[in-house]
Amino acid sequence: MSSYPQDPPFAADETTMLRGWLDYYRDTLRAQTGGLDGAQLATTIPGHPAVMTLGGMLKHLAFVEQWWFTIALHDRPPVGFWAEVDWDADEDWDWSSARHDSPQELREIYDAEVARADAALDEALATGGLDQPALRARRDGSVATLRWILFHMVEEYARHAGHADLIRESVDGAVEL
User: What is the CATH number of the domain that holds 116?
Assistant: First the structure.
C-alpha cells in the first residue's frame, strides 16, 4: 500500500483547514484502494456479511460527494448515472453495484465526483462563507450550513478510513505506513 498523504497544514484559516483534512482523507482512500484488482476491491472482511468492500467504498463516497456538494448544497438534481439509480429497490446500490465495475471505472467515478464536488465547493465559497445554508432542506425542514457539510465530510471519510484499514489488511496484509 502506498504511503498516506501528508498532513494538512498545522496552522491555517478554518476553510483551508477543513479542505485540507477533506483532501487528506480523499487521498487516504486512494492509497487504501491503490494497486488492487477487481477481486481485491470486492473483498469483504472475512466472516462479516456486510456489503462493505473497498470498491463499494469508492463508489459510496463518490455518491456522498455528489449528495452533499451538488444535491444538498446547491439543490441540483443528481448528475450522470446517479440520476437513474432506483434507491428504493436497493438502498445500498452504491455499495452492492461496485462489484460490477472495473477498478479503473471505480477510480474514474470517484475522481470525477471529487472534481465535481471541489468545483461546487469553490462556487459556494465564491458567493459566501462557511455559514451559508445549503439550498436543499432535509425532510424535517432543517438546513445544514456549508461548515456543517465540510465537518460531516471529514467525519464520513474518517469513519470509512478505519473500515478501509481493516479491509485492506484482510486483502493483502498491508497496514498503515
Answer: 1.20.120.450
Between CA 25 and CA 155 the distance in angstroms is: 10
pTM: 0.93
Q: Is 138 a member of any domain?
A: yes
Strand partners, 145: 133
Distance (Å, whole) CA 139 – CA 83: 19
Each residue of 64-81: pLDDT tens digit?
999 999 999 999 999 999
Residue 76: inside a domain, yes or no?
Answer: yes
Grid coordinates given for 125:
465559497
Beta bridge partners of 133: 145
Contacts of 64 (CB under 8 A, 6+ apart): 153, 156
